[in-house]
Amino acid sequence: MAHALQNMHKNLCPGYIGICPAMDPVSGEDLLRYVRNIHFNGSAGNPVMFNDKGDPPGRYDIFQYQLIANNTWDYRLIGQWTEQLYLNVEDMRWPGGSRELPASVCSLPCKAGERKKMVKGVSCCWHCELCDGYQYQRDEFSCSMCSYDKRPNVNRTGCTHIPIVKLEWHSPWAIIPVFLAMLGIIATIFVIATFIRFNDTPIVRATGRELSYVLLTGIFLCYIITFLMIAKPNMGICSFRRIFLGLGMCISYAALLTKTNRIFRIFEQGKKAVTAPRLISPTSQLAITSSLISVQLLGVFIWFGVDPPNTIVDYDEQKTSNPELARGVLKCDITDLQIICSLGYSILLMVTCTVYAIKTRGVPENFNEAKPIGFTMYTTCIVWLAFIPIFFGTAKSAEKMYIQTTTLTISMNLSASVALGMLYMPKVYIIIFHPEQNVQKRKRSFKAVVTAATMSSRLSHKASDRPNGEAKTELCENVDPNSPAAKKKYVSYNDLVI
Questions:
Q1: Dist. CA 251–CA 293, nearest whole Å
Q2: Residue 404 φ/ψ region, left for φ over 0, alpha for ψ in the -120 to 50 degree band, beta for the rest
């Protein structure tokens, strides 16, 4: 109060000793104004003042409850408040002993690729949700799906194109089929060259040269399809795939079916008459084979007309749950059903050929190729019976393209190798290493050949029914060994080829 009166006297009574008329009497409002404006240090050295509302300023000590030595907790002075904050940040401690100031906010900003999900009724609080799967962050509050041919980028702020893949030549899925195909092509060319070199020798003539070359052409095409299936798809490659996918097998089994059917008709005719059946000449055999092959080609041309070949990128085949692993598969526009339909006719020929091979299994092996053809067809059927469940069993696999292509090409390579190995390699072996066996056998009439084959078949069946391995037949029972008929010499029919 004294400081207020002194300041009031200095202002109202300058140079006047005592109370001047201006202060007599003293105005309460004026005195209050002077009281509020005083500012001096008290006896303790602390400043004395009042704010505009007449209140003295606040003065506070700030303490923090901290862990002190010896595992004890106590309050520690870390700052003061006197009109403003004085805080010693270095003396402050936070949970875990950290000295870093915690963020005093309800929610932290969301990271890239996360959208804000606001808390109802609290405008400054939200939850951050990651845009998962094939979604990207469209704006601060929403996510959107990428288009079918794209995937989110690393921070999910946009979309990038899904990488496109195909079966590469250096892939393990391609190396094995290509290796088998190259060996098969070399072996096939070697057999063809050998047959051409020894074209007029008895063994080559006995195999039916015309159909043999047709069959070898089909085997060669079965190996070639491996390279078309692995090559980078384009319009030309896709067209050749459609043509040659079933053509090689069709040519091979059409020739084998014609051979087995000819053998069957010859020996069936021999049981009824001595005249030769129709359509067994080389020209007729080529005509029959060509007609069977033309059915396959007709189906392919109809396929071309209904659905022209083109390439597609299949983004669904390898669209995994993890977008980083997603891939688009470049391939020809050929479905699994179309592949089976293309091979279906060849499989039908194969099954029919197998039936005829079973029917001619009793024909003596020295007369024809029925038994080697039979073994070839039995083995081929086993190969394709294994192919079908593998091909369709992997339809939902992420590795579908690789498994199905490898399975298909290996099956075709094995089928061609079986035919090449069982039907032609033994003949090539005799031609090269045993030329003394490649000589002309005694020619016999059709009647003699068929009669001898029929007699041999009967003898073999009768022998199996006799005890102790006796091979007597009804034809030679009751024959006097000293009679002239018994002493006649007969020409052996062994090693005779029809």
A1: 6
A2: alpha
Number of other CB atoms surrounding residue 379 within 10 Å: 16
- Any idea of the CA torsion for 124, 127, 131, 136, to the nearest 10 degrees? 0
Cα(first)–Cα(last) distance of the chain, in Å? 145
Q: Indicate if the pLDDT at residue 389 is higher than 70.
A: yes
- Residue type at position 452: A
Amino acid letter, residue 287: A
Residue 246 and residue 262: Cα distance in Å, rounded?
24
Strand duo 327-332 + 164-165: pairing:
parallel
The tens digit of pLDDT for each residue in 474-489 reads 333 334 444 444 443 3
Number of neighbouring beta carbons within 10 Å of residue 349: 25
Asked if 144 contacts 158 with a C-beta cutoff of 8 angstroms, the reply is no
> Would you state the structure tokens that stand for residue 114, as one six-digit string?
């996360």
User: Which of 281, 272, 460 shows the shortest CA–CA distance to 366?
Assistant: 460
Closest CA to 110 of 157, 159, 158: 157
Strand pairing partners for 48? 40
CA dihedral 480, 482, 488, 493 (to 10 degrees): 50
* pLDDT tens digits for range 309-356: 999 999 988 888 899 989 999 999 988 889 888 899 999 999 998 888
Return the structure tokens found at 349. 């020929």
